[in-house]
Design brief:
7-stranded mixed β-sheet; 165 residues; alpha/beta; 7 strands
Length: 165
């Protein structure tokens, strides 16, 4: 049995799209048109930061699948940590689940401790990263290679300039 972070039962399947040039209007699983759902994503940023980010994901009702765009999430995280703790920018992070919207709203007024968030957090039922194959012509039986996503330019370690005295 997989260890869970949140106390609520797992909810949603989750897919992270690491390709900035590709936006999904259809579900990559069932290929039906997807809608949008704004939900607070729970993100752990190393070493010990927990962020609840109210983010508009693509949502497939048929597959119960949330899709987030990696570069959008990283842009928001970069702007957030640039103000509060620039040393964290570029650290490893993991989108681990969702938080109840009412608790997210309360956290805007008064930040909550991790222990206070857990009873209202829900892990993802399934988590995966989207991968595309290289376009082109291939021989019968030949598998097209997987297209590597580009490296993040914004969410990378920044060199802090020493303050002038």
């Amino acid at each position: 049995m997989k260890a869970r972070f949140g106390d609520l039962p797992p909810r949603y399947s989750f897919m992270l799209n690491p390709y900035p040039g590709y936006r999904l209007s259809r579900c990559p699983v069932c290929e039906k048109k997807s809608g949008q759902r704004k939900t607070p994503l729970l993100i752990h940023v190393d070493p010990n930061h927990l962020v609840a980010l109210n983010y508009t994901c693509r949502y497939c009702r048929n597959c119960d699948l949330l899709i987030a765009h990696k570069f959008d999430v990283e842009h928001i995280l970069t702007e957030l940590f640039r103000q509060y703790n620039p040393e964290v920018i570029g650290s490893d992070y993991q989108i681990i689940g969702t938080v109840e919207k009412s608790v997210w709203r309360e956290g805007l007024e008064q930040p909550k401790a991790v222990a206070d968030m857990l009873p209202h957090a829900s892990d993802f039922a399934k988590y995966e990263e989207l991968r595309f194959t290289q376009p082109g012509y291939y021989r019968a039986g030949q598998k097209p290679p997987v297209m590597e996503p580009p490296k993040s330019e914004e969410w990378s370690k920044i060199k802090l300039q020493p303050r002038k005295k």
